[in-house]
Batch of 3 targets.
Target 1
Amino acid sequence: MIGTTSALIAAAALMLLLIAWVRADKALRDLPLGSEGWLSGPEEGAELEACPPEFVSQIFSNCDVAYVERMNSPELERRFHHERNGVALLWVRETAAAVDRIVRSHAEASRRSRDIEFITEASIFFQYVQLRAACAFMFVGIGLAGAQKVRAVAFYADSLNQRIGQVAREFDAGLRAQEMKGAGPS
Amino acid sequence: MSAEVKLMPLQQAYDDLVYRSLSRVPCELGRLIYLASTREYNTGHYYHEGLADRFGPDAAQKALEIAHRQAFYKVSAYSLEDLVEELEQYLTSTKEEPQECLRAWQKLEPYRITVPADVNATVARLFTSNLRLALAILRFRQRPSRQHPQAASPQQ
């Protein structure tokens, strides 16, 4: 009996997760004027400009929701949530892609380095796992409850992303200095 | 953009652009549209005859590019409420029939071409999304049957 109940709960949870995922994916693809190819970002290999933190607070802010609610129009509210969730999902996807890129290039740099610190590497990896989990949570959460409900997780993810980027940049700078010293006159 | 653009002419070109041209435009959205209009559609290069004559084409292009990005990020950072006010101000300043302008903007979405090249994709999406919402809010406000929420008396 307990087994059947657990299986039913698990199936319901899985179904809910699937619905949220499909909704989030649809909101991300559902761009009002068809193709927005230029929004897919710069070409392969080009330097990507990160989303400034003040825009992250704006995307997940409650002020715009309150303003739209004052209009007393369910149609405007529905439209607002549709638009804002689309932007939030794009940010989640961009953040996940950015941290993947940082960690990949850091792994390449680590292979060239002669003195790798275990604690630094473990810390980067741990933060990377946390950030990817936060992105997955937000992707589902935005689909289920909307962008404003995952506000705290978004701020946490943004600060993690900046921290990982900072550590990786410092590591790269150290490695470059090491390589220049090695290439200098002996 | 050539690396030969010296800092001094660039700064002078930028200041000249801000004080001589942009200060005459009544709102930030208007400035953004003006700056985007100095960009050639086919090449993406910026061109302003007066500025290029005075400071050279490279400095003029760089100054226009910087001012365009600044105006874009400034408008993108507006709250929805501020953007609605800004849009209203811009539409009034065009001297066209506001209703007709609103309809054309909703249909053609001309503001899409005001996005500078290589800006962050999320900010670009936030900008177009907020403008769509601002247009919808302005259209909603102009509906004759609608009772303004501020004018409505409390139902208690």
Note: Chain A has a mean pLDDT of 81.
Target 2
Amino acid sequence: MRRLVRHKLFWPVATLLLLIAVSAAFNPSFLSIAWRDGHFYGNLVDILNRAAPLMIVSLGMTLVIAVRGLDISVGAVVAIAATVAALMIGGSFSASGDVASEHPLWLALGTALLVAAACGLWNGLLVVKAGMQPIVATLILMVAGRGIAQLLTGGQIITVYYTPFFTLGNGFLLGVPVALWLAAALWCGLHLLLSRTALGLFIRAIGGNPEAARVAGIRAASITLCVYTFCSLAAGIAGLIISSNVKSADANNAGQLLELDAILAVTLGGTALTGGRFTLAGTAVGALIIQTLTSMIYSIGVPPEVNLVVKAALVFAVMLLQSAEFRSLVSRAVRTGHKPA
Amino acid sequence: MNRRLLPLSITILLFAGMAAFGAIRYDGFLSPQVFLNLLIDHAFLCVVAVGMTFVILSGGIDLSVGAVIALTTMISAALLEAGWNPWASMALVLVLGSLFGAAQGYLIQRFALAPFIVTLAGMFLARGCCYLISTESIAIDNPTWSSIAQARIPVGLDASLTVGAVIALLVVLAGMRVAHASEFGRTVYAIGGGEASARLMGLPVATAKVGVYLLSGFCAALGGLVMTFYMLSGYSLHAVGLELDAIAAVVIGGTLLSGGVGYVAGTLFGVLILGIIQTLIAFDGTLSSWWTKIVVGALLLLFCLLQRLFEARSRKAA
């Protein structure tokens, strides 16, 4: 039992199960999963589907945080990737009913992801080569990036009419949402890459002590650069899913506040913000916690206004649980309260 | 010349350069009222940015200020609607803002939590509380409030300032005095320079760390009041993203985000530069508002690169 409690995934998973249990208590049909229209249907499937973009962004954020960084530009990158894809696929403002795409789908998606990766490379260069603090370096793109996306769209919402593009955010494969397949594939790929090669160890070493890692012969600079590029690439994928889901690209609002949710998901999952220790599984659970919380608040009929307050309370609670000072304070209080046996 | 003054002088030169550009390019730009409007339109940002300067000087960050501003506008509007005395409600929101900041500071200091996450949660909490009060905008029609909002203080040359702008200037002056001529200010600089050494020097590090967030919370509440004088309404979506504008103003004003280096006066010019960019774009008339974001991003980049350059050079000299 004690070993179970000590496991680093115990608290995140316990929080998630608690949230699901509360939802199920208020709404008995919450847990039911049905097969309808050739795919799974139910609240849980909906949560997984909606959590997928956040999960993808959070995976990238986990690695950035693991190397002692932070990327607050992911929301802007989501907007940029969504805009590029929507513009290339067929952002005509008139609904003529014709659904041919302007450029081939693969070219549009590829370009959007390439642009996203370039954004990450830019962030990485500012951090690694110019030696800027990660928050500032990514603040630049966060401020300017959304401006650039708005410049591309002329401040308008760009509607996409080309139906194959909608598969990404609305389609199902073997009854499971395509977005979830993407998130799962990314998670598995990343997990294999980090556990089967030395890369995971290198990232932990860089996060633990960048200088020591460099002296030990780890190419800290290039790995950090790759990590930032990957984070933006993940944000780009999320941007494609989000814009495909709503069948349009909104440069003003797409991915707004996503950076904060992603950092929150990473923290809730048990990754230390100080770098070095990270858990991909925890991050996935963290993203699910955030989405379950949102769905729960809607499904049990609490006004959505309360959502933010509950979220804040949750963050405060998780934050304190993670703090060594707080835990020692509590255990001291418990010890003085009850005489130890 | 003192090397530490170099970023500040570049900020001031840049402001002068932009003003000169505007004066040559556009008719009617070079009037005193245009420049005073920079301060009038961004008075709340200026007040908040001064508080943020202290937080950043101590090596921290405060993401909650925009939400605290919104909460302040909501609480004061709700109190006035309930028939409270205007002065009492002003005093109450200032106390609440300070307490909010101090609570965040306590969590950060006592439990060694990351300021980024604590103030992020504080931002959610304050915004959420706004929604709990009301999701609609609440208009303020209190006579005292309206008379403060409409008051113009003539400063000669046919130009005038609002009460909010005067408050902003007073806050900047007070901030300069506190930063450079008080024990608290010196402790804040020392914490930013190195917390462990500040503690070994026997400075009251714990008190000062809570103090900077208290000050930032107070400034945010005061900024919220200034905003209600400007908007005459309380709304949950006031000041969304203002924390980033405040951080940008502080950085453009020459303060290092790593802490320990910077001037409150620089922050005033940082705010004015953000203001003059918008004014230039408004005078031009053909450029769209998103150019503001792109230019602010480019300026941030320029300043951060310059700062890195100075740091590298002073390290070589040492």
Note: Chain B touches chain A at residues 61, 107, 110-114, 116-118, 120-125, 127-129, 131-132, 135, 244, 247-248, 251, 257-258, 288-294, 296-298, 300-301, 304-305, 308 (CB under 8 Å).
Target 3
Amino acid sequence: MILRIVRKEFTEMWRDGRFRLAAGIVLGLLLLALGLGWAGARQAERERAEADRADRAEWLAQGKRSPHSAAHFGRYAFKPATPLAFLDKGVNSYLGTAVWMEAHYQNPFRFRSAEDATSLQRFGELTAAVVMQLLIPLLIVLLAFSQLAGERERGTLRQLLSLGVQPGVLATGKALGVAVALGVVLVPAVLLGVAALSVASPEASVSWSLDRFLLLALAYLLYFGATLGIALAVSASVRSSRVALLALFSCWMVGCLIVPRLAADVAELIHPAPTYAEFQKAVNREFKDAGMPDTIPDTKKRAEIEQRALVQYNVTRAEDLPVNFDAIYLQEAEVFGNQVYDKHYGDLWDIFERQNRIQALSAVVAPLSALRPLSMGLSGTDFAQHRDFARAAETYRRSLVERLNLEMRDKAGKTGYSYLSDAELWRSIPDFTYAAPGTSRVLGANKLNIALLVFWFVTGCIAAIVAIGRMKAV
Amino acid sequence: MIKRIFRHDLRLLKADKTLIVFAAVFAVLIGYAVASGLIWANERDELVRQWYADGEQYLAMNRQVIADIEQGKTPAEESPFADWVFAVKLPAALPPAPLTALSVGRADLDPFTATVDLYSKKNELFKNYETDNPTTLLAGRFDPTFVIIYLYPLLIFALTYNLLAREREDGTLLLTLAQPVRLRHVAIGKAAARLFAALTFVIGFTLISLLVGGVDFAAPGVGLGLVWWLLLVIAYTLFWFAIASWVNARGSSSATNATVLVGVWLLFVVVVPSLLSIAVTSFYPVPSRLEFIRQMRSNDNEVGRSSKNLLEQYHRDHSELVPDETVNIQSRFYVLAEAQEGRTLPLVRAYDGQLTRQQNLVDRLRFLSPAVVMQEATNAIAGTDRARYHHFQKQVEAFVDEWRAYAVPRSFRQINLRSSDYDSLPRFGFQEEPDARVTSRALAGLLGLLLPTIVIGGIALRRLRRYPLVESR
């Protein structure tokens, strides 16, 4: 019975010129977005690999220099794009791609691609995720709004119900009919996505990517299912198809356009973040209060550290120290600075994550607010992923600076800053490597979003079945 | 006749509560958007004020330290470098334009503060990014421009999608046309009624919200800017009404009308801007930022290696500055900084050049979408477009030159500052752009909206002649 309904619905939709036109446009946009995203991602990865190579070359070509100068020259870390970033750019455009790892400072990431763009950027970028999150629901609304209300207006609903079709069967049949019609658009796109993935990523990460791709597909299916269920429910409950269409468009406008922005505002209101000026002032004040400014060493603090060094090396005078004292002081300042940065950056990023949780809570009103963070998380383009990379880069920075400071401590002796190291030392320090977090961690961080998405899917199904069950034939 | 239809339709709209519902929706959306915009603008204002205040406080503190040493209250060894010229840090910031509340534009992305001192490099002046949550930046601001460009057309559609189709579906259209009245008059009358309602709500609620929000209409730039903004909103409204009239004139059912209207909205507001963006970045691709970093690092290395040569070169070029061969460390750093800037600045200029070319192409192609036309014009009025930011950047760079003219000779001649010198240091003051630029952009936007409106309206009226008065099943 269900299959019969599905076949009838699909044939009717397929013969409708409007559907073919709309589906063709959406499919075209989706393929365009996929193609552009994939080409852009390949280009970006090529540039990044080249930048990594060049950075190592510059690091080795420093010539003879004191270890502390080398620590100031530092290294650059370039954020790699995850293989699925071509599907969903997430917040990457609003985050820097490169960070300068130098002594004394935990620098912010620089060069956000959103800045290096014209004002058109504010209209949003056309990615596969945007097409699927905004346009496919519209297509679903177009296909589903007159499924039941239209039948009632045409008078065929009475005949249909008189046949004794169960509401559940009718609901499933109609839903599957729309789903098959939608499949005309989605299946080619999915196949293309899988093909792009296998071509783009290196062997090792294909399984990682396919895992996530399947989970992404599942998440989007839940989202589409929820939209379809709600659309059918509205179509069954409302007097005329015209009102159904209006109501569904309004829901789309509120759920996809208004709620995300409103939620961002509310989140900022509840958990305000410090401004740049406040952040800098707070950090500088901590340094000043502890007497450890980065440039001129404070005499009292320096004396304290000197005392400790004398005890540690069992000598009575600073001149007798077997190691270079300036380096000891530099490392102490470094350790102090690290805990200051840990605290302030940690607090700032915690506030961001709390804001994101509030935004995710708005999914109670709009399923897109649950899908979007999940989609970003699985594609590896959300803030949590960036934070992980920043943390890894910071860990490397600390180990790099410590290595250089210790070199100065052990080898510089009395020559101090005039002691010069050469490429042998630069070569001996390993490069920065990074491994992205696993899928289970992403899923764990997105528990709320997954739950809300499932909730919406179940609600959609139940609403559709109940509404069809309560339908009046006339 | 049209007037009678106009009044009658308004009465109908009032009777079926349509007007009340729309009034409420407009009030809420616009009220919230204006409030949100005003809050943002006030915060930005406060940040700029605070930046200058902090800068002045630092200078005052330094001045006090020098004064104390001069008066012998503290020994000079405690702050050995306080009176050196490199210790002076001068604040510069871009204040928000009077009508920033209307459109946040790019202003939440571009760094708007800078500090100028002896070692400032023009390629590194603007790196103070605000600590904004990237997820919030991605979502975008709920400002009046967002409501007008994205949501307002959808509301217009809700008002007009069944302009004629409803009467036809109800059967009253034939009855009406049995009277001595032409179809086009009926259509114009009904459209005018809804146009009047929409404009009253939008303009009324915006002005009320701005008033309640405490905007001073008499302040310089506010009155004129608001007038331009209102004219643009009216033109934008007329455009979408023209589109709605054309869709109605095609004679389809109201459901089809609604679908086509949403499709047109998607085309102009989502698809065309994205395609435009792709087009401009393909024509004028921006050089790779990562390559830029590599060049910068390579320059730094090169400069570091050849510092001795650089100093000699500087001696030769500026023999008037260096009385003898010994150069103090402050001046040495300055020479290195200037050399790094000299090597890296051309890269920055090349970068900016490509972006400018991209923006110029956008300026020419923006007439393909009313949404882009509206956004560009509104950003110009609100002072949050790229042009004003460039204006600010140029002024800060000029100020760097001004400061160097003051500080570099003093640095090389080892002339340190006295506390009285601190009272006459140059300060940065932002000069607003001439009004003419904003006016020309707003005017171009207005024309870019009105001309297509007239054309589409004409097509709609012509199409009405073939309007099917009876629905074909």
Note: Chain A touches chain B through 86 residues (CB under 8 Å).
